[in-house]
């Protein structure tokens, strides 16, 4: 409709213009010329329309290309931004220019987002570049195509934050290093020589680079080492000066006060001590004999501490020479330092061995007390205390030996030589101690067994108990007491009394028994025979393993007879009272009764 209307107007306009031109041309030209003008007018009209059509076609193709480009851009934005973009297809009735504008508007926000993301990435990469340049770190890659995912962006931001923290930490460390360097330089009385060093050590400097950081670190290590050496030299010189003062008995108050007031660790103190040490060294050379004599006293003390044998001591020949030279003095000083270093290095071994020696001596003393015949004369549980102490020491000694062995083996693995104590291997000494103790334990037991057998074979005749008991002895061995129904074995009784005889008098021969021992034997036999209970002899036989229990059984039997008002079995007169003998029984001594003594109170036992 619109096309027909405009076409009609164009045709009418064209016809009017052609008629008007033709009338003008007819007035001006010949008919032939007018015809040529119409032909050229036709050609011009055709060319005009053809140019117009070509231009329109080009414009259409441009729209198509733009639309295709917008399609490609949308696809690329979707890939870069990791988003899905759906534009759809152009409707048939929609002009290309409208579709182009619509497509362009639909991806405008994607363009803006892409530009923002790329700007952010560029800024992050720029920051990373500066930080990596300052810290000497390798950069982390962050791609522009495709753009990183949100998780990757977060990781990169964390990386940048770590770099910032590291940069801040490095700056703080550099400030601390500057302060430390300036302090050490002040102690050493040193000054910066170049402008670069001055700028580097300036507190206001915030210059950070791997080179500057490394320079500060090396300077800090260097000056710290110099200060440490200065402090060691000051301490060494101070000790040396004090030692020389002590050996020379210096009384110069001015020099001593000047040295002792210089307590700071700096160059000034070093200079003061160096001057005093030079003066003391000159005095030392002038007093070589007294110095050498003092060193020999100290060496002897350290020889004793390190348990050196006479052979090892004689190896240091300078100790015994009579020369008073600088070389002799130097040899003494070197030997003394070697002894101190050896003792300090192996202090644990010496301390453990000293503790072992003390416990060993105490154990031998306790065992000697246990073998003493008069050990039962004490009251108050002393025997129990000694037995507990002996058991504790016996348990501790193997543990200390194991510790010493462990440390000595470590020493041997390092030095490939045994550890000597008084010229002997410490491990062999400890083994020999235990072997000697084992043999000493075994030998007395064998001797005691032989003595028991001798006493049993000899069977010495019993001695009378007391005058009152001798009056009525008309039974066995002159006794008037009758045997009880319990069958007592005289041989067992004799054996038991023989052991009592031997334990009371361990060094006395069985050929000549003492009267007191015989009295005890008669008393035990009499009580055993006169007890009315059947089988009491067998019970007494079991109880008599301990001397204290023997005495208790005797006391119990006597008390029962006295309390009931009856005399022993075999006496017809119930009114007759037998005198009760007063007997003191000495507990036996020996190794076999040590465990039994712990069950009693350890006091003296009497039967009255």
Strand and helix map with partners:
Layout: H1 2-28, H2 31-80, H3 96-106, H4 108-135, H5 150-188, H6 195-201, H7 210-248, H8 253-261, H9 267-286, H10 288-305, H11 310-314, H12 326-345, H13 347-370, H14 382-415, E1 420-421, E2 424-425, H15 426-458, H16 467-470, H17 490-504, H18 515-530, H19 536-543, H20 547-563, E3 583-584, H21 594-597, E4 606-607
Helix pairs in contact: 1-2, 2-3, 4-5, 5-7, 7-9, 10-12, 13-14, 15-17, 17-18
Helix residue percentage: over 70%
Which parts are unreliable, with pLDDT below 50 for 5 consecutive residues or more? 454-608
Number of helices: 21
Q: Which strand-content bin applies to the residues?
A: under 5%
**Cross-sheet strand order for the largest sheet:** 1-2
Mean pLDDT: 76
Seen as an oligomer or otherwise, the chain set is: single chain
Describe the fold and architecture.
The protein contains 21 helices and four strands. Among the domains are: 19-106, no CATH class; 355-443, Methane Monooxygenase Hydroxylase, Chain G, domain 1 (Up-down Bundle); 460-607, no CATH class. The strands form two sheets. A two-stranded antiparallel ribbon has the order 1-2. The chain has helices at 2-28, 31-80, 96-106, 108-135, 150-188, 195-201, 210-248, 253-261, 267-286, 288-305, 310-314, 326-345, 347-370, 382-415, 426-458, 467-470, 490-504, 515-530, 536-543, 547-563, 594-597; strands spanning 420-421, 424-425, 583-584, 606-607. It is an all-alpha fold and 608 residues long. The protein is elongated. Helix 4 runs parallel beside helix 5 and helix 13 (347-370) runs antiparallel to helix 14.
